[in-house]
Amino acid sequence: MARQFADAQDRAAEFETLRPTLFSVAYHILGSVTEAEDAVQETWLRYATTDVEPDSPRAYLCTIVTRLSIDVLRSARARRETYVGPWFPEPLPTDAGDSRSWGTAPAVDPVQAAEFADSVSMAALVLLERLSPLERAVFVLHDVFGFEYARIAVIVSRSESACRQLRSRARRHVDAGRPRFEADRRERSELADRFFAALQDGDVEALEVFLAADVATINDGGGIAGGAGGVYGARRAARLLANAVSPLLALDATLRQCELNGQPGAVVRDRDGRVLAAWVLEILDDRIQTIRSVTNPEKLAHLGPVGDLPATARERNRARRSDRRDSD
């Protein structure tokens, strides 16, 4: 009995060491923090109850979590086809100090870490939505996590030649629309600092300086909270951003900067600390090319208690009307 208990402890410790990698595999395939965590938990339940002693726990566990993720993605495709408005992945905190170890890179080499951050970006994950579940899984395992085709073939139950073809098709799709980001992360971070400072000040002219002429401000509200956004041009986008955020801050909402999906971002919370929105900035050539926001409450729960954005917006609008009456 003591030996079985020790073996179970060893297996649990081994799993916890691999948990960040398993989560990253699942999130790359699914684009959902909630579904990825569920897949990892199911992987643990299967590992804890099996008599199998794998030669490579990493390969064995990655096989389980990948197969589970493929099954979930297949069932999710129908829901995503009828999704209201733009679909973005659930925002993933990737700050180095995040205690939840989400988005952990597979290597500490700066170049590899930067490549990993780009692979988990919202733009990259939206691009992966074009792929079939098998193409996506093969591409992620090979190009992001460095698995050999022989191992991938076992994981997805296909031949090596079939896996090579799946990866080749996926690579063509990805290369056709591969997002480009600012290479210097420090410069990108400094620009984001200045942008968010101007946003909190409601300074439209300062905001415009940071935006590309054809900047896109796109929102995933799922038809529940917030509009879809669009491409407005720098001047109009700056006005819209200031008009949306400044009144919220006047209601004691907060905007806290953080890294999301490997890119500069921020989380907006109401006066009670409940999450209203998550923002991600995509920066290139010293300008913000795209601002992606997520206000669908179903995609924010993993960040903390979720607020009521429509109710907060109504309160904001009432306060603005009151201010106008007072000024008349």
TrEMBL record:
Ranges of residues in domain RNA polymerase sigma factor 70 region 4 type: 123-173
Sequence ranges assigned to domain RNA polymerase sigma-70 region in this UniProt record: 15-77
Tell whether Cytoplasm is among the UniProt keywords.
no
Segments passing through the bilayer = none
Name the UniProt key words of this record, in alphabetical order.
Sigma factor, Transcription, Transcription regulation
Looking up NCBIfam families in the UniProt record yields: PRK09636.1, sigma70-ECF, SigX4
Name this polypeptide is given: RNA polymerase sigma-70 factor (ECF subfamily)
